[in-house]
Structure formats: C-alpha cells, structure tokens
Amino acid sequence: MVWGGKKKLSGAAKLTGATPVAGDFDGDGHADLVTSRSADPKATIRFGPFTRTGKPVRTKTLDLTPDNPSYYTPGPPVSAT
C-alpha cells in the first residue's frame, strides 16, 4: 500500500496475503482490500481507512469453501463442435 500526493509518493506499508482486490466493500467511502492465498479457502477483508503502517480500521474473515465439493472436481473436456 502506498501514499502520496500530486508531486511524489510519501510512504508505503507492506500487507500480507496474496491476490489483493480493492474496492469500497462497506460503502463508507474509504478504500478496502480483500486478500486471499491460493491454497487457503479463506479471504480477509481489510476495511479502510488504513494507518501509515498499513493497519486497517477492522478486518473480517470470509470462508470461501463451496457447499458442494464437486465444484473443484474437473469434468470431462468440452468439445467445441
């Protein structure tokens, strides 16, 4: 996460996690981040605003495990005929 103004960057903070997605997920006008790791079925929402050290106002963990395990089972190839 980086901060800056019109002239230059003024600071940065490293966040853990992978695959970040940014947006305003709670509608408060502040940027939020969702991060997850590919091997973990959980994701973390980090709600902004963030401190200069990268600490969010609050966090929430989401369990992304599908209800139907067959979601991950590869099916037969689909032919394009």
UniProtKB/TrEMBL annotation:
Domain of life, source organism: Bacteria
Region entry Disordered, spans: 44-81
Keywords (A to Z) from UniProt: Signal
Stored InterPro entries: FG-GAP, Integrin_alpha_N
Name the UniProt record assigns to this protein: FG-GAP repeat protein
The species this protein was found in: Streptomyces sanglieri
Source organism phylogeny: Bacteria, Bacillati, Actinomycetota, Actinomycetes, Kitasatosporales
